[in-house]
Amino acid sequence: MKAAVIESVGRAVVTEVPDPTPGPRDVVVEVAACGLCGTDLHILQGEFAPKLPIVPGHEFAGEVVGVGSQVTEVALGDQVAVDPSLYCYECRYCRTGHNNLCERWAAIGVTTAGGAAQYAVAPVANCVKLPEHVRTQDAALVEPLSCAVRGYDVLRSRLGAHVLIYGSGTMGLMMLELAKRTGAASVDMVDLNPARLETARKLGVSASAATPDELDRPQGWDLVIDATGNAAAIQDGLGRVAKAGTFLQFGVADYATRVEIDPYRIYNQEITITGSMAVLHSYERAAELFANGVLDPDVFISDRLPLEQYPQALEQFAAGVGRKIVVVP
Amino acid sequence: MKAAVIESVGRAVVTEVPDPTPGPRDVVVEVAACGLCGTDLHILQGEFAPKLPIVPGHEFAGEVVGVGSQVTEVALGDQVAVDPSLYCYECRYCRTGHNNLCERWAAIGVTTAGGAAQYAVAPVANCVKLPEHVRTQDAALVEPLSCAVRGYDVLRSRLGAHVLIYGSGTMGLMMLELAKRTGAASVDMVDLNPARLETARKLGVSASAATPDELDRPQGWDLVIDATGNAAAIQDGLGRVAKAGTFLQFGVADYATRVEIDPYRIYNQEITITGSMAVLHSYERAAELFANGVLDPDVFISDRLPLEQYPQALEQFAAGVGRKIVVVP
Amino acid sequence: MKAAVIESVGRAVVTEVPDPTPGPRDVVVEVAACGLCGTDLHILQGEFAPKLPIVPGHEFAGEVVGVGSQVTEVALGDQVAVDPSLYCYECRYCRTGHNNLCERWAAIGVTTAGGAAQYAVAPVANCVKLPEHVRTQDAALVEPLSCAVRGYDVLRSRLGAHVLIYGSGTMGLMMLELAKRTGAASVDMVDLNPARLETARKLGVSASAATPDELDRPQGWDLVIDATGNAAAIQDGLGRVAKAGTFLQFGVADYATRVEIDPYRIYNQEITITGSMAVLHSYERAAELFANGVLDPDVFISDRLPLEQYPQALEQFAAGVGRKIVVVP
Amino acid sequence: MKAAVIESVGRAVVTEVPDPTPGPRDVVVEVAACGLCGTDLHILQGEFAPKLPIVPGHEFAGEVVGVGSQVTEVALGDQVAVDPSLYCYECRYCRTGHNNLCERWAAIGVTTAGGAAQYAVAPVANCVKLPEHVRTQDAALVEPLSCAVRGYDVLRSRLGAHVLIYGSGTMGLMMLELAKRTGAASVDMVDLNPARLETARKLGVSASAATPDELDRPQGWDLVIDATGNAAAIQDGLGRVAKAGTFLQFGVADYATRVEIDPYRIYNQEITITGSMAVLHSYERAAELFANGVLDPDVFISDRLPLEQYPQALEQFAAGVGRKIVVVP
Ligand SMILES: NC(=O)c1ccc[n+]([C@@H]2O[C@H](COP(=O)([O-])OP(=O)(O)OC[C@H]3O[C@@H](n4cnc5c(N)ncnc54)[C@H](OP(=O)(O)O)[C@@H]3O)[C@@H](O)[C@H]2O)c1
Ligand SMILES: NC(=O)c1ccc[n+]([C@@H]2O[C@H](COP(=O)([O-])OP(=O)(O)OC[C@H]3O[C@@H](n4cnc5c(N)ncnc54)[C@H](OP(=O)(O)O)[C@@H]3O)[C@@H](O)[C@H]2O)c1
Ligand SMILES: NC(=O)c1ccc[n+]([C@@H]2O[C@H](COP(=O)([O-])OP(=O)(O)OC[C@H]3O[C@@H](n4cnc5c(N)ncnc54)[C@H](OP(=O)(O)O)[C@@H]3O)[C@@H](O)[C@H]2O)c1
Ligand SMILES: NC(=O)c1ccc[n+]([C@@H]2O[C@H](COP(=O)([O-])OP(=O)(O)OC[C@H]3O[C@@H](n4cnc5c(N)ncnc54)[C@H](OP(=O)(O)O)[C@@H]3O)[C@@H](O)[C@H]2O)c1
Ligand SMILES: [Zn+2]
Ligand SMILES: [Zn+2]
Ligand SMILES: [Zn+2]
Ligand SMILES: [Zn+2]
């Protein structure tokens, strides 16, 4: 089959590789589309993946075209979205329900061959059936959505919160859509790039600007979410949290990034700073929310490129052009 | 001024009463509209209100036309919605943050003169300013909405829940609107009265029926909400909760109502049954959500009668005809 | 090896069975002691276990005497307590972190050969190493303790609660010990059997009686825990919950038991009723708490019988004589 | 009566002032003892108190010797501990249950005359009756304990946590006592001052050292609590939090203190940083826990000086000698 392959650091190609064969509890999925994200760039830079070459791609959905000998839950022809997470279920974090912090964390598209290919293999437990009305290509969005759902699980926000989101990329916009669905009284968004904020306005943001200084909320926001990973945004955002409010570190900062906090204020205003990492108990719920129309795929997917152009897709993503880019085998 | 008065058990009239005078931290509100609810019927039956006669009405909004000597927070001409709750701040429940369970619970329209009148008086702290775009009459809906918000505060539901609501009256429909805004993956509704379900469908319910038997969800619902107070509905609903799910007793049952639970199932499926009572820390948030359009007043308010017809309004409400009925002075 | 075997409904024997052989990620444990509980009686009555004969016993600890080919986490000679739970990690409940509600729930001693034997086999992930100062026999108490820990995880109680526990058997007494360690301001206990309450008094209960009527707390208790499974106790306990309080169904009632609740009170006093089922993310923590002396084994283990007397041990347990009975191979 | 008075910045005296007279819902308390804390030093430095002179003292208990005309809850001769907090009940924080963040925060001993005097006046709602077995002098400890209880309310910790506390002063030691009562599996403590750690060891700390480097816990601690306010301690502590763990800013840092956080780690390990400020819904519970012996007053109160020596007591406190110092009128 045809597949994208990260062959070595800095080198991505599309080439022929052997078709995957399923284990007894595995499913072979004919990929309809596979999304790209920051993790793929990290792999290209020689991080995250324990060894190269690897077929990347952990955001994908497709049709079941093969099943292992002990699979009964899905059948040939089913449309499925695939949770890429592979937990050990044995380490201290798995044993206490924090599987996303698994000591032996593994994932389809990172530690095993992924979805940037014609076919991909996945444990049946990771395959979530999609209702017929969902366009399978679009369901590549379920994985990033399931990260956003985890973010709101951490926040446990109540009805009526005032929310400020930094970064109007794919993830910031998903946080926006979910803010509305977790009862926000208002959702404001900041991004340095005015073009990005257009989409936010299209999706019904309450207010948007290049900086919160332009927004009229001196008492701050109950929830401030970083969806940039950018040090300046994080530093600014920490200062915008209202009394008794919460800052969510959702963006992935560089390892070396450091920002300052003010311990007196943390104490005196009972401010909380917390983080959310990948997917935890949230994939199926994201799939259901997606099937129920929580996202408009035509807004979220800005580019659909043929699998052959995987290297170019990666370049475009690295250049920060567009929103979610998917490759279509 | 003109006011509705519950004179004695079973007897409501509209008559002239002295204009109210504000204390130093009080506000006089010219009532734009005042809603009716079950509490008013209880008062008519000689319950809840410690003494008669009383001017009823605890769901109201209007314009500030007088302020006490020490009021600075609102000014003449401001439009305000009024939280009727009057807590003692001294009892063990107030001192632990459960003001809605206050041992000396009191409320405008129950223990002191209410909003079914041309003017009403309220502590300034209970007056929430409304933005200009809100039609003040409609803001009579803020109080019931703030009860619904309390319900979801108790539930603390996560994104992706499947919700079943019993009762498609004013409160059930508010629970529906908030279910969508607390991230429900689906919201189903049952009501014995098919006419009532039409509104539910208009508001975008996922499925509706006379009984959950007609709905296809053998594994049950994550959240089941009673918004009827009816014994049969409660009994049925308790059996519809999914494993690890929650039943919310929001409807006000008769004192004598008893329903059965199955302790083995509570244990074995880790089912939770809980309740939500009136307003707690939720009035301002309800006002903001209302101002942001969480409810369509023209759907929720079915009848706007002149204050003179308060007795007839009460009769119509008792007969269960329509949704929210408001009187307009 | 020698093992207790439930051969058929109502028939338990001690006999010779083949020694167990570990799979690649399994461990063979030489059992130091194995506790008996209600589950074993259910198995004897033909319930819970999918097929007979079965070697029972899910509360055990012992020494590692064999390891599978891929085991590195424990070594021969290690003392371990064994979590009997075997989850599928694939069903909707496992995938959302409710493994104790697993649709394919399985357990050592219920669906596979258990610890009432000279040797037992367990996945290495289920084996928790014990520090040297722990007497391995005593660590048969870790499993029931891990159920009690799950109970308090469900309760999430705050410092200063007033707690009432029904049933002064092994589990009620564990709930007592943990009430003290979850910040209870007071812990009262009721049991019909005055002899049982002596142990409660020895462990420092605040007050104890045959019925809460004898205890002076008209406002009720913040937390009421049923640790009897008895219908009369549950019914009585539901009425003892204070405003804003919680009732925990910890005892395992008969399937047919039904008790009555008062929906007006659930609503008006914001009462919560909830349940806790077996072990969830709590086994390791129970082992640590146990190692740190949270329980006095000599109080909790009333009888240590030789494995040969397993049938008699079961009879004594069924007769309700003593507290935790363990068999020692 | 005799009272300590902060007359002007830097100047504390003991002098005669008029006896206090109670309002209708107030109580006059003959002070048994009044504790000193950092707030008193801030007042001396011209901070916190809106105007000088002021009678300081917000940690006190005593006997009821006078009651206002409308007081029925306490009687002459009752022993009471006094919650110093005076909330407005009107601001946005009070109205949402965050009274400790009140915009018009006021307190006995800060904004009105306090307990470093022969008599003090307090609203009856702030007076908590003590059982007879409590030595009233010792109950000056209830106020700081109620801050510690608030800290654990914020933490909502589960059974089995590993806890690390920085600072073995009065507050750190209270956090230690409460860690044990909130189910900690272990509680370690660090302090630069070896003499301070002796008390920690006396109270049963699991391990203690000058720095966590000496403690063997490479995976970090589930809960890390700063009870120093010291920048170096906070900075060190933030790096000691285990995956999925929480850091509590309990110590009051200088306004200018800044420490660094690592956003990648917050995200990747789902770390939470939060704060707890003074007393919220926790005073009565602290009083009950205190009455039940949660603290040994003879360990916690290191010095009992006569009221006449208030200025010297303040100096000793500023010098960091001893634990809780109380003055006895
Ligand atoms: N927590 C999780 O589980 C999880 C899951 C997925 C992704 N993530 C992370 O979430 C972040 C967002 O992902 P994405 O795919 O949406 O990325 P993206 O498309 O690159 O969007 C980030 C946006 O933030 C803007 N931005 C950068 N610096 C800013 C600043 N100082 N102030 C305001 N806006 C700023 C960028 O503007 P320009 O276009 O001008 O640069 C861009 O529009 C990334 O860090 C990603 O790694 C986290
Ligand atoms: N918790 C709180 O804070 C709070 C606040 C406000 C109101 N409430 C309570 O909430 C409940 C609903 O209030 P509402 O104003 O919406 O009342 P409502 O307009 O009377 O609506 C109740 C609806 O439930 C339906 N119903 C009755 N029995 C039923 C059954 N067995 N199965 C299905 N549907 C059934 C009724 O149908 P019919 O028209 O055929 O009777 C009606 O449509 C009341 O009990 C009210 O007291 C509680
Ligand atoms: N939720 C879980 O995960 C879990 C885990 C383990 C066990 N359990 C359940 O927890 C319950 C207790 O277990 P156990 O081992 O402690 O049982 P146990 O030793 O039989 O203790 C139960 C105690 O309750 C007393 N009792 C019975 N009816 C009572 C009543 N109406 N009022 C007051 N006391 C009454 C019994 O007295 P007599 O001796 O006079 O009968 C006995 O002392 C059982 O139902 C068990 O199945 C639950
Ligand atoms: N959050 C609240 O509601 C609340 C309430 C009351 C108090 N507080 C705050 O809690 C903190 C503790 O109060 P306290 O009365 O216990 O104060 P304390 O008696 O001064 O105790 C603080 C202890 O921390 C030690 N320490 C200082 N720097 C350290 C470092 N880098 N590493 C380790 N230990 C260090 C001190 O040692 P030395 O003796 O050598 O200096 C001292 O033993 C204060 O900041 C206080 O303002 C907060
Ligand atoms: Zn793991
Ligand atoms: Zn009250
Ligand atoms: Zn399962
Ligand atoms: Zn306030």
From TrEMBL, chains A, B, C, D:
| Pathway named in the protein's UniProt entry | Metabolic intermediate biosynthesis; 2-deoxystreptamine biosynthesis; 2-deoxystreptamine from D-glucose 6-phosphate: step 3/4
Q: Which Pfam families match?
A: ADH_N, ADH_zinc_N
Q: Which reaction does it catalyse?
A: 2-deoxy-scyllo-inosamine + NADP(+) = 3-amino-2,3-dideoxy-scyllo-inosose + NADPH + H(+); 2-deoxy-scyllo-inosamine + NAD(+) = 3-amino-2,3-dideoxy-scyllo-inosose + NADH + H(+)
Keywords for this protein: Metal-binding, Oxidoreductase, Zinc
EC number of this enzyme: 1.1.1.329
Q: Where is the Enoyl reductase (ER) domain?
A: 4-327
What are the names of the required cofactors?
Answer: Zn(2+)
Task: Give the top-rank taxon of the lineage listed in the UniProt record for this protein.
Answer: Bacteria
Q: Which family does it belong to?
A: Belongs to the zinc-containing alcohol dehydrogenase family. DOIA dehydrogenase subfamily.
Question: What is the annotated role of this protein in its UniProt record?
Answer: Catalyzes the oxidation of 2-deoxy-scyllo-inosamine (DOIA) with NAD(+) or NADP(+), forming 3-amino-2,3-dideoxy-scyllo-inosose (amino-DOI).
Which PANTHER family does the record cross-reference, listed alphabetically?
ALCOHOL DEHYDROGENASE-RELATED, L-THREONINE 3-DEHYDROGENASE
Name by which UniProt lists this protein: 2-deoxy-scyllo-inosamine dehydrogenase
Look up and give the organism this protein is from: Streptomyces althioticus
Q: In the record, what lineage is assigned to the organism producing the protein?
A: Bacteria, Bacillati, Actinomycetota, Actinomycetes, Kitasatosporales
